[in-house]
From TrEMBL:
Main location: membrane
Name this protein carries in UniProt: Potassium channel protein
Molecular function via GO: monoatomic cation transmembrane transporter activity
Domain RCK N-terminal: 132-254, 296-409
Alphabetic keyword roster: Ion channel, Ion transport, Transport
Annotated compartments: Cell membrane
Keyword Nucleotide-binding: no
């Protein structure tokens, strides 16, 4: 098991303080030494008028409380004029020494290196004390904040590395229930990643969400080499970066614009499949309305940056004609180009807005995108509008416009990450759905929404093993035949069906079943992907884990309580498969 390396010497607060205070401390010690020595050599007299010299102890004691402004008086005898003259000199010397020392201390306290060293040591200690699973989140922008909030709802800890000190300070303002250790540092530095727990035995994954592709690439490489067992989810904004990450074996590479281009291409090619995927991958608890399908016809793409290029590629894949408006027009012979500002009505008219069926507002400015959308809708009210929203803070403005589709990169990345982290089985299920025809997708969508409504369901996976489903697992290992239909019933009223559906059944022998029938028998080791209400999914978890609940569901009888009575009832249980009414 890999362990974290000890904190390097240059991060030690003690040695840093000694280095910065070396000169003032030497000066102060020198002043005290000279003062003590001079006081022992200066002649004095006792009460009897006899000559008397102070011992080193008495001199040090007197200089100590005099230099610190305490002032207990002259000891052990009243001082002579020579002694008082020397003490006066010592007082002014000590004032100079203390002023210099205190000034150096105040400068040290405001020194960025010391604050960074203190924060680093506190952060490293907090990470080393973690004794529960946690994810290492690199980057605390809009996406990082959404990820941390979602992880907290899931009851999973997060450790954050962020380069912007202001964003690190925001973590305390968000009042997380679980403490979130955070460090202001470069996440692309492997040493920083090790301090943050990359090789910690309780680290269960790395999520690279910075807005710098090179930093995300460095994180991906470090994760691959230093902790190859950990899943790494990395954001990539350029295709070259994605290819480089893939060459290092990064498991999950997320480009939000590429993901949406795939969604748009699917919506143009198979709108029902797109609606089914949108309903399943939305934010749980939110209501999804039946939206218009993206029409096939003439489209206009405003802005040919990263997002615009992905949109054009998606439409080219579906043979949809496109006109591109951009200030830097680069005719390629395959598309019609209009050079100009997309926010102006004249450029939109030149692009054929009157005959267009859809428009993509794809610039990097939220204000420009809203301006384009408002102008385009005024010229063509029936236009299908895809609107790019770059910043979550502008949500109210984009909601007020009510575009057909609003593309928010931070939400796309968040949903993708959560799908991978919380329900890994969802990814192969969605891949299977994309291969099905429109009739199948339409039938599944109608069936699921008829049972669960248009509110986005909770998605959860359950593996039938001794840890997750002990009651069901024991019965299956004893040879009992149990089907899905027997389990998908309410533990309070066995005749009522649970408000959930099994979307996917994964088996170790690669015998995967998409939306299996209720008569499908369950086997030990099966993993089920379920969609439904939170209450129904919790009830299902109770059914497969609790022997009393499972027995009631299968036989209609309650087991007697208590360990002794339960053992006796097991002996008296009749053989034979259970039957439902």
């Amino acid at each position: 098991m890999a362990m974290q390396r000890p904190l390097p010497r240059h991060h030690s607060i003690f040695f840093l303080i000694l280095r910065r205070l070396r000169a003032p401390l030497v000066l102060l010690i020198g002043i005290i030494a000279v003062s003590v020595l001079g006081l022992t050599l200066t002649p004095g007299v006792d009460e009897a008028g006899e000559p008397h010299s102070l011992s080193f102890f008495h001199a040090f004691y007197f200089i100590s409380y005099t230099a610190t402004t305490i002032g207990f008086g002259e000891i052990p005898h009243t001082f002579s004029d020579q002694q008082r003259l020397w003490v006066t000199i010592c007082i002014y010397l000590s004032v100079i020494g203390w002023a210099y020392t205190l000034g150096s201390v105040f400068r040290l306290l405001s020194d960025r290196s010391l604050r960074q060293a203190v924060a680093t040591q506190g952060f490293v200690r907090a990470v080393r004390r973690l004794r529960e699973p946690f994810y290492l989140v690199c980057g605390y922008g809009e996406t990082g904040r959404l990820i941390c909030q979602a992880l907290e709802r899931m009851g999973v800890r997060a450790v954050v590395i962020e380069l912007d000190d202001d964003k690190v300070g925001e973590i305390d303002l968000h009042s997380y229930t679980l403490d979130v250790p955070a460090l202001c540092a470069d996440a692309g530095n492997p040493e920083t990643l090790e301090f943050a727990g990359l090789t910690h035995p309780h680290c269960i994954g790395v999520i690279a969400l910075t807005d710098d592709d090179q930093a995300n690439l460095a994180i991906a490489i470090a994760a691959r080499l230093l902790a190859p067992r950990l899943p790494a989810l990395c954001r990539a904004e350029h295709r070259e970066t994605s290819a480089n990450m893939a060459s290092f074996g990064t498991r999950h590479i997320i480009d939000p614009f590429e993901r949406f281009s795939e969604t748009l291409a699917l919506a143009l090619h198979a709108p029902k499949a797109s609606q089914l995927l949108g309903w399943l991958t939305g934010l749980p608890g939110t209501r999804v309305e039946r939206r218009r399908d993206p029409p096939r016809g003439h489209w206009i793409v405003c802005g040919h940056g990263r997002f615009g290029r992905w949109m054009v590629d998606a439409m080219d894949a579906e043979a949809v004609p496109v006109t591109i408006i951009d200030l830097d027009a680069r005719p390629d012979g395959a598309h019609r180009w209009v050079q100009g500002d997309s926010t102006g009505a004249e450029s939109l008219r030149q692009a054929g807005i009157d005959q267009a069926t859809g428009i993509v507002c794809a610039t990097s400015s939220d204000v420009d995108n809203l301006s384009i959308a408002v102008t385009a809708r005024a010229l063509n009210p029936e236009l299908f509008v895809i609107l790019r929203q770059n910043h979550e803070a502008n949500h109210a403005l984009f909601k007020a416009f009510d575009a057909d589709i609003t593309v928010v990169p931070s939400r796309i990345i968040t949903h993708e990450c959560l799908a991978i982290l919380s329900t890994p089985l969802l990814v192969p299920f969605l891949q299977e759905v994309r291969t099905r025809d429109e009739d199948w997708c339409d039938a599944r969508l109608e069936h699921l929404t008829a049972r669960l409504g248009w509110t986005v369901p909770e998605i959860r996976s359950e593996r039938i093993n001794l840890k997750r489903a002990p009651a069901l697992y024991r019965r299956l290992m004893q040879g009992e035949g149990i089907t899905l239909e027997m389990l998908l019933r309410s533990p309070s009223e066995r005749s009522a069906a649970l408000e959930c559906e099994v979307l996917f059944l994964d088996r170790d022998d690669d015998d995967h079943l998409l939306t299996p029938e209720g008569s499908t028998p369950i086997r030990p080791g099966d993993e089920l992907l379920l969609a439904g209400t939170r209450r129904a999914l919790n009830d299902f978890g109770l059914v497969i884990a609790n022997e009393h609940t499972l027995n009631y569901l299968l036989t209609g009888k309650d087991l007697p309580g208590g360990w002794i009575w339960e053992k006796l009832s097991h002996r008296a249980r009749p053989a034979g498969p259970p039957k439902l009414p």
